[in-house]
Design goal:
The chain is an alpha/beta fold. It has 13 helices and 11 strands. The protein is 29% helix and 14% strand. Helix 1 packs across helix 13 and helix 11 packs parallel to helix 12. The radius of gyration is 22 Å and the shape is globular. The relative contact order is 0.15.
Length: 436
């Protein structure tokens, strides 16, 4: 059994199911875990995983296929921890008193439960969207994951912004500890900043937004921490990506030497930086209409802040996107043109390049900036499978979209690291005993 560097404690071995690009694995590896394998159906995400985890086995394919599952179980036989975020869609079925695990739409969730039951690791971690916490669903998941009482399981609703990630991202985390260990699953508590701080209209400027407090005196302390560039526990968008502000719309050079990046302006940026080449720096081009609108939106705002003359569907006659029945922006544009605020963390990233726009420059973000806002370090490279065209498991729309999607779908590594560190302290005594 491999030992943590500089210690006599064995490194917990982990298998990552539905791994995607590997956000959970990045965080756990930095917390002292040894990643044995990652599995996913998406060949592009698995190309990224393989590049960044050369020490691990990459298993590409549908976990519902016998051969794929056989490989997972075979490698997982020596795993101490199983992690993953299986899609789970049929929440509404709970109201009809059907079991979540029996719904065919939840077959991937069922596979996660079954693989945990086959491997019987010392612990497991499953993450999912916060909607799973609705009444009835969470209770069924806790029951399924308990494996007939073999595991003590708890659910924790967490926000990544409370764990040093410069992005609000709420997730429901299920942590299970095998009953043979005789301990309860760990508490997972962050700073509480996400519930205490927000953006408020800036009445003094009559336009724009400023940081504000939701709660009491404790929020004052959290506000001071957020404004402190040396504090890596609560991080703003500018503290995360301010050194990359030199990038412009249409920037085509994907790689630069780290010495050619902007000056480090925060402890968070310093923690992300690496020596050598930094990749994924390309920035999408912008059409004229989008540039005009972004110049009319303050930092922290969205299309609702646009003056009336910029609310027309097309401003310059250039046609783009699907047409609408109106000559005005539609309801579906509510989340369009959202500009980051430099003084607060980012909104939750989604899978598209236009999920958020830069706070100062009228442009979208690079994949590297997506990585920074998700807490992936600069030595993490996002790529795609070298094979061209439609291959099994590939999500369409091209390589560029895939890179944004991989990071937008990922679990923030710093959140995974925080949970992994708590879990490590729980299972370490059992690991030490096994190595004796």
């Amino acid at each position: 059994m491999e030992l943590d560097e500089g210690t006599t404690t064995p490194a917990p071995r982990v298998v990552d199911l539905f791994a995607g690009a590997g956000g959970l694995s990045v965080g756990l590896r930095s917390a002292g875990y040894r990643v044995l394998a990652g599995s996913d159906n998406d060949p592009d995400a698995m190309a990224t995983f393989s590049l960044n985890f050369p020490e691990a086995t990459t298993i590409t394919g549908d976990i519902r296929q016998a051969e794929v599952k056989r490989q997972i179980v075979e490698i997982g036989a020596s795993a101490d921890v199983v992690v993953g975020g299986p899609p789970c869609q049929a929440f509404s079925q709970v109201r009809n008193h059907s079991r979540l695990i029996d719904d065919p739409r939840n077959s991937l969730y069922r596979e996660f439960v079954h693989v945990v039951g086959r491997i019987e690791p010392r612990a497991f971690l499953m993450e999912n969207v916060q909607g799973m916490s609705q009444m009835g669903v969470k209770e069924q998941v806790l029951h399924d994951l308990s494996q007939r009482g073999q595991y003590r399981v708890v659910a924790r609703l967490v926000d990544a912004a409370d764990f040093g990630v410069p992005q609000t991202r709420k997730r429901l985390i299920f942590i299970g500890i095998h009953r043979d260990l005789g301990v309860e699953p760990p508490e997972v508590e962050g700073s509480g900043a996400s519930a205490a701080l927000t953006l408020l209209p800036d009445s003094e400027r009559r336009r724009g937004y400023r940081l504000g407090l939701r709660t009491d005196v404790i929020a004052e302390e959290l506000l001071h921490r957020l404004q402190d560039p040396s504090d890596v526990g609560i991080v703003s968008a500018e503290q995360a990506i301010g050194d990359l502000s030199f990038l412009e719309a249409g920037h085509r050079k994907d790689a630069l030497d780290s010495r050619d990046l902007g000056a480090v302006r925060s402890a968070y940026q310093r923690s992300m930086r690496v020596s050598g080449v930094v990749r994924n720096l390309g920035v999408p081009r912008m059409n004229v209409d989008t540039t005009m609108r972004l110049n009319g939106i303050p930092a922290g705002g969205n299309h609702r802040d646009l003056p009336d003359e910029l609310r027309a569907r097309y401003l310059t006659g250039q046609k783009w996107g699907p047409s609408t029945d109106s000559d005005r922006l539609a309801r579906k544009h509510y989340y369009a043109y959202r500009r980051l605020h430099p003084d607060l963390w980012a909104w939750t990233l989604n899978t598209k390049a236009d999920a958020v726009y830069h706070y100062h420059n009228a442009r979208a973000l690079s994949v590297r900036e997506f990585c920074r806002l998700q807490s992936f370090p600069d030595d993490f490279v996002v790529t795609t499978d070298s094979r061209q065209g439609d291959i099994a498991g590939r999500v369409p729309n091209g390589a560029t979209h895939s890179r944004y999607r991989q990071i937008g779908n990922a679990v923030p590594p710093l959140l995974a690291r925080a949970i992994g560190a708590q879990l490590h302290s729980i299972i370490a005594p059992a690991l030490s005993g096994a190595s004796a």
